[in-house]
Design brief:
There is one protein chain. With 241 residues, the protein is an alpha/beta fold. It starts with a strand and ends with a strand. Helix content is 43%, strand content 22%. Strand 9 and strand 10 form a beta hairpin. Helix 3 runs antiparallel to helix 7, helix 5 packs parallel to helix 6 and helix 8 runs parallel beside helix 9. The strands form 2 sheets. An 8-stranded mixed beta sheet has the order 1-9-10-8-7-4-5-6, with helices on both faces. A two-stranded antiparallel sheet has the order 2-3. The protein has one domain: Vaccinia Virus protein VP39 (Rossmann fold, 3-Layer(aba) Sandwich), CATH 3.40.50. The chain binds S-adenosylmethionine. S-adenosylmethionine binds next to helix 6. The site of S-adenosylmethionine has 22 residues, from helix 6. InterPro entries: SAM-dependent_MTases_sf. Keywords: Methyltransferase, Transferase. It comes from Pseudosulfitobacter pseudonitzschiae.
Amino acid sequence: MKLNLTHVRGARGSTHDLILSYNAVQAAFNAEHKTLFHRIENAIQQTGEKGKMPLWEGYEQIPEYVQSTGPGARRSMTQVRTGQGICQFYTWLAVQRQPETILEFGAAFGASGMYWLAGLGIAESGQLVSFEPNAQWCDIARANFDLVNDRHVLTAGTFEENTALVSPAAGITLIDAIHTKSVVLAQFELVKQVSAPGALVIFDDLNFSDDMWACWQEVCAASDVAAAWQIGKRVGIVELR
Ligand SMILES: C[S@@+](CC[C@H](N)C(=O)[O-])C[C@H]1O[C@@H](n2cnc3c(N)ncnc32)[C@H](O)[C@@H]1O
């Protein structure tokens, strides 16, 4: 699937050329890895068939969250997963950049993580360090990750409480957890501390709320951000200095 990739600000160097080249190569890349992607989507479908499961209780601490998160709130794989087109881009990005560590949080049921692992497997290098505080969801994510390969360290806990596990430094990070400006900006500060120079940091669900959009504007304007891109209005990518 072609993506609506746009440059937001900053350097138009090699990372810029790489990211904007995706649409020219995506059809061939996705055809080459069709069987692998089919296997991952099968696992996602089977997890989806398990239905909705209770949300992590940490969401109850967030006042006036845009989505209902109170006691009894439940979600399915289908509701929380990153879309297939963006996931395939993540696989390609992992193959192109070949980072020692890809960091992601949260794992949820493992959809984005399986696609990161696919890229690490194709590259035959690197590890995925992933976090999911929902113990039930984390177990499902682990089983899904194992279907792809064993290049993962998945922790049943929050990223914030376990930053010491991110080693070697991350070359790519996906922040896809609680979608509020105050939470995400605090996580971004921690991500910078565990990232390699020139690392990419990806923000999901920019259009979740006005608050998340304001968060993205602040991230883009940060002095330690060299360049920023968007996939549609949903996903933001920045390159650290
Ligand atoms: C939108 S889902 C992630 C979807 C997943 N990346 C995918 O594409 O399949 C958000 C997840 O983040 C988890 N989460 C929330 N706060 C977190 C934190 N501080 N650290 C790690 N995970 C967190 C939630 O429990 C939830 O499972």
